[in-house]
């Protein structure tokens, strides 16, 4: 049974006129929540497909179960246990869910929200525009690059069923940039994907294609292993290639949202859970900005709370940037050792870092990690031996806008 739909937060008596630019999953989620409030919503995207109201979504999306708000649960498949393999194999203390893209797209279609195949207009006195058009694809970004294949496996009961794998770091030590294997069930089969978690890479398409080709070769080695061959015969259904710019943003909340607002975690590549979780908060911010709430004697307290929340978001953003930079500077053996330490942490501490919403919680998670890594771990070495290059790279990325 799907969970009952979570009601939208109470809105003001004067509905906001909202234009949303960009109709990926983040923009669609924001539009649905705004409509629930009774707002006047219009959506814009120049890439809308012929005969549809949405652009294609070729990528595969997932999120850790605790990061999915109740109202969005119906758009995800059932939670599945997760395994990680670094120096040892372990099952994580939380579950993972794949986005059912058609369920979310159909919910948007049923909402009958006006759609324009065009860029969005600028904000005005009578309307607000939120940009959800993705992160800037610049040389300053960290890049997550992945190459995958979706296969249909034999239904014979004599063959074992694959287990969902969050990360398998058993790649060869000479792999550079380092990569891991990701395995998840999808609508039409199983996705096996070799992923570079974070790398310094040019935005040039030919350079990224070189990395995709390299990952395809590594993935072929994985699929030829005895562990995968034991799953029985399989048929390749389709391939997938992903390049995600991380750590850059077009602007700040609430005018920019999703990846455009910096919600991609540069140490994981995830943004969907953060976007869906943060949709109502962003709408609250828009409502306050337009003078529809927060009046009277409580205004001082409300302003103080806003400042604290903004500072906490900024702290989380900076700490995520530092983590992503350290990952991009590490080799295969270093990351295997680091993630062995990381996944020894209690599940709530892991989640605090993987979701990355709360700056204080992220800082606590990083501090607790030192009990397993110490201060001399190779992963942390750039902080002590190259502090200024690390800081310059982070600063340049945070200021990259396009």
From TrEMBL:
Q: Which domain of life is it from?
A: Bacteria
Instruction: Extract the InterPro entries matched here.
Output: FAD/NAD-bd_sf
| One Pfam family cited in the UniProt record for this chain | Lycopene_cycl
The record's PANTHER family line, in alphabetical order, gives: OS02G0190600 PROTEIN, PTHR39757
Q: What is this protein called?
A: Lycopene cyclase
Q: Which organism is it from?
A: Corynebacterium falsenii
Identify the taxonomic lineage of the organism of origin: Bacteria, Bacillati, Actinomycetota, Actinomycetes, Mycobacteriales
């Amino acid at each position: 049974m799907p969970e009952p739909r979570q009601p939208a937060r109470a809105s003001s008596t004067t509905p906001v006129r909202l234009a949303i630019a960009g109709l990926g999953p983040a923009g669609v989620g924001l539009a649905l929540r705004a409509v629930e409030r009774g707002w006047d919503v219009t959506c814009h995207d120049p890439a809308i497909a012929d005969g549809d109201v949405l652009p294609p979504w070729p990528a595969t999306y997932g999120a850790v179960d605790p990061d999915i708000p109740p109202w969005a649960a119906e758009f995800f498949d059932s939670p599945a246990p997760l395994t990680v393999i670094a120096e040892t194999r372990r099952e994580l203390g939380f579950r993972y869910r794949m986005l059912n893209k058609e369920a979310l797209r159909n919910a948007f279609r049923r909402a009958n929200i006006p759609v324009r195949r065009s860029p969005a207009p600028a904000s005005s006195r009578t309307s607000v525009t939120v940009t959800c058009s993705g992160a800037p694809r610049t040389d300053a970004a960290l890049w997550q690059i992945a190459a995958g294949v979706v296969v249909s496996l034999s239904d014979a009961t004599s063959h074992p069923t694959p287990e969902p794998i969050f990360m398998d770091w058993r790649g060869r030590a000479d792999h550079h940039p380092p990569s891991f294997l990701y395995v998840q069930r999808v609508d039409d089969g199983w996705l096996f994907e070799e992923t570079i978690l974070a790398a310094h890479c040019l935005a040039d398409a030919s350079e990224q294609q070189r990395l995709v080709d390299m990952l395809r070769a590594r993935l072929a080695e994985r699929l030829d292993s005895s562990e995968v061959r034991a799953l029985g015969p399989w048929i390749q259904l389709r391939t997938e290639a992903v390049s995600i710019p991380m750590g850059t943003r077009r602007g700040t909340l609430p005018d920019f949202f999703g990846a455009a607002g910096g919600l991609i975690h540069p140490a994981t590549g995830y943004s969907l859970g953060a976007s869906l979780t943060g949709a109502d908060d962003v709408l609250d911010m828009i409502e306050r900005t337009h003078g529809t709430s927060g009046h009277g004697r409580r205004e001082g307290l409300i302003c103080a709370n806003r400042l604290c929340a903004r500072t906490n978001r900024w702290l989380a953003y900076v700490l995520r940037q530092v983590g992503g930079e350290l990952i991009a500077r590490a080799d295969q053996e270093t990351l295997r050792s680091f993630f062995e330490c990381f996944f020894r942490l209690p599940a709530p501490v892991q989640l605090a870092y993987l979701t990355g919403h709360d700056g204080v919680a992220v800082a606590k998670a990083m501090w607790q990690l030192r009990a397993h890594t110490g201060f001399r771990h190779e992963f942390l070495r750039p902080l002590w031996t190259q502090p200024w290059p690390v800081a310059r790279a982070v600063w340049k990325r945070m200021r990259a806008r396009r």
